[in-house]
């Protein structure tokens, strides 16, 4: 399951540089996560780094983008060119 950023985002800028896949970018009003690039840090870290640094806890799982750990690992391998 990829992650999403909710309207509670305060645009503090701490999540974007933490994403190893470059999935986080500034949207029109708040930061957004590209679900095609989000692997929940699978392949890089044990925990999603954006969730770890978010001071307002506004990065939950996106229930509309359910993916297993295996699917996230396949996405990681494709993104990093290790597939």
UniProtKB/TrEMBL annotation:
SUPFAM superfamilies for the chain: 4Fe-4S ferredoxins (SSF54862)
Alphabetical UniProt keywords: 4Fe-4S, Electron transport, Iron, Iron-sulfur, Metal-binding, Repeat, Transport
Keyword Membrane (UniProt): no
Record-linked Pfam families: Fer4_7 (PF12838)
Residues in coiled coil: none
Example of a GO MF term: 4 iron, 4 sulfur cluster binding
UniProt keyword annotation of Ribonucleoprotein present: no
4Fe-4S ferredoxin-type domain residues: 1-29
One term under GO cellular component: cytoplasm
Protein name (Swiss-Prot/TrEMBL): 4Fe-4S ferredoxin
